[in-house]
Amino acid sequence: MSATGLTRAARATRETVSGLPREFWWLWTSTLVNRLGAFVATFMALYLTLERGYSASYAGLVAALHGLGGVVSSLGAGVMTDRFGRRPTMLAAQLSTAVSVAVLGFMTHPAAIAGVAFLVGMASNASRPAVQAMIADIVPAEDRVRAFSLNYWAINLGFAVSSAGAGFVAEYSYLAGFVGEAAMTLVCAIVVFLKVPESRPEELGASVSGGVPSDDGVRLSTVLRDGRFMGVVGLSFVIALIFQQGYVGLPVAMGADGLSSSDFGTAIAVNGVLIVALQIPVTRFIQSREPRRLLVVSSLLAGYGFGLTAFAGSVGVYALTICVWTVAEIINAPVQNGLVVQLSPAHGRGRYQGMYTLSWSAAALIAPLMSGVVIDHFGAGWLWATCALLGTVAAGGYWLLMRGLQGATGPATEATAATGTTLAAGTLEATKTLEATGTAPAARDTGARVTKAEAPPS
Fold first, then answer.
1. N or C: which end of the chain has fewer CB within 10 A?
2. Helix or strand or coil: residue 37?
3. How many CB atoms lie within 10 A of CB 316?
């Protein structure tokens, strides 16, 4: 690359990472540390089939129980995030994850492995609504797509390093991988405890009577009645169902082709490396593009990227198919996260993020069962064809659901002097009056400048 090209790349990187609050970078650091220790989610299928000698169906059952744990904890963690705070929820989740992952490494009985995997799923998934809500709290609205991209970049920077290293660790000792992940998760909790402050909007922290979390007016039933948002949740589930195959169906298929755990580690590391290399330039590209088109394109790339896996048989070809669906990940993750925040009221972000997280947890539950049964009874080719079909369905769904979204979720109208109320755009009903609550009303976040009500406490 020429000196001019290097200068442009450096300037683009500087513009992408500049201007974000210090608290975000500590949260980013904790995410990076956590992903550097990733092991269980990546190598559980290989651990059970190659190391323990269980069938693909049993491996799918264990992975499904891991996903079920996430389903159970998603909504509860969302409520905790709103009522007790982002930071306490993250700390409780990370400490529980560290303990349960370490215990899982010592389990040998099939029932014990399955039971502890369920607990790991509960603990590891509980921090997600809090992390996403905190990013929305501390980052100005116009910078959130960029912030979500950078956070996703941290996830995959850690994943790229840990996948390649963990593959070789697995060749030596799977137990070392479990213990290592527990240790890194504990370090992540320490970073959050020391450096990440609470970010829940100040007026939601306690009632005027002092000390007791206030009634924020958003219930899980409110989220369920939000038709457009629940449509996004449903499409997110379909997309997650596809992406989950990279960590459930793909390793089993590669093992059936006679490839080793280190081969899978090398191939799947391409996913993380490519995201690390492309996330920043792609972020600059997508910031000014229409979200609907981006989500449609990413859905098609995801579906047909996995569809191409039917023609793979070597590490190199598997890696090429991973490149295709990785581009879909790079586009889909920050755009969809930004859409979720846009459709969420500031004081209900935890519950909305919990419902969104539920879509991924449910996919983590269903995907292993789907892949195990399909591979065992019909062959991997049918699994990859199903992924292509699901990608097509998701693309059509986004195209239909997001028609007129800008108008439907535009900025809330100004409060009137007579009533002091603000009407949230879209499907959220009118909020309580300022005089009645003493707090700022809930409005959908549309990407406009962050307001005082949305800003984190000083």
1. C
2. coil
3. 9
State how far the Cα of 419 lies from the Cα of 404, in Å rounded to an integer: 29
Furthest-apart CA atoms within the chain: distance in Å: 73
pTM of the model: 0.71
Tokens of 160: 């790229």
Query: What DSSP string describes 375-393?
Result: HHHT-HHHHHHHHHHHHHH
Q: Which residues pair with 345 in a beta bridge?
A: 444
Q: How many CB atoms lie within 10 A of CB 389?
A: 12
Tokens of 5: 């090209």
Residue-level pLDDT at 186: 92
> DSSP per residue over 109-135, as a string?
SHHHHHHHHHHHHHHHHTTHHHHHHHH
CB neighbour list of residue 6: distance below 8 Å, 6 or more residues apart: none
Quick one: tokens of 237? 């589930």
- DSSP per position, 217-228: S--HHHHHH-HH
The C-alpha R_g of the chain, in whole angstroms, comes to 22
Q: Quick one: angle between helices 315-342 and 128-138, nearest 10?
A: 60
